[in-house]
Amino acid sequence: MDWKKRLREDGFVEVDGFRIELSLDNTFMDLDYIPRVLFYDPPTGRWHVLRNPIPRGNSLEESWDSAVEVLCRILEGKETPVFGEEGVAERFLRALGRLEAQ
């Protein structure tokens, strides 16, 4: 099963200790939930939130589909991952690339 399908069905994928996870956020106490991509980064031992905009769907499934589409654009080089901490984006890209190569 390819990583996109696993991510959509299981909500997460792992490669070499790195973990990419789909989540929802309502940071501003809004009733609408915003799709988010979380990234566990072993070198920092922390979770990071991908800051790229992810379009909200009309359902959980549509929101997660949008998140996977953003990851595909990042993998294709059409978007740059934004994390706000040095080195995280590069490790994220390498982990995403290893997932694609599997």
Topology of this protein?
Blueprint: H1 3-10, E1 12-15, E2 18-25, E3 34-41, E4 46-49, H2 60-75, H3 88-101
Antiparallel strand pairs: 1-2, 2-3, 3-4
Taking strands numbered 1, 2, ... along the chain, how are they ordered across the largest sheet? 1-2-3-4
Structural class: alpha+beta
Q: Biggest sheet, open or closed, and with what strands and sense?
A: 4 strands, antiparallel
Question: Per the principal axes of the C-alpha atoms, what is the gross shape?
Answer: globular
The share of residues in helices is 25-40%
Overall mean pLDDT score? 91
Tell me the quaternary state. single chain
Nearest-angstrom radius of gyration? Answer: 13 Å
What string gives the helices and strands in order? HEEEEHH
Task: Determine the number of helices (DSSP H or I, runs of at least 4 residues).
Answer: 3
**How much of the sequence is in beta strands?**
15-25%
How would you sum up this structure, described in words?
The mean pLDDT is 91. The chain has 102 residues and is an alpha+beta fold. The chain is globular and about 35 Å long. The chain has one domain (3-101). A hairpin with a 2-residue loop joins strand 1 and strand 2. The chain contains three helices and four strands, in the order αββββαα. Strands 1-2-3-4 form a four-stranded antiparallel β-sheet. The termini are close together. The longest helix has 16 residues, at 60-75. Helix content is 37%, strand content 24%.
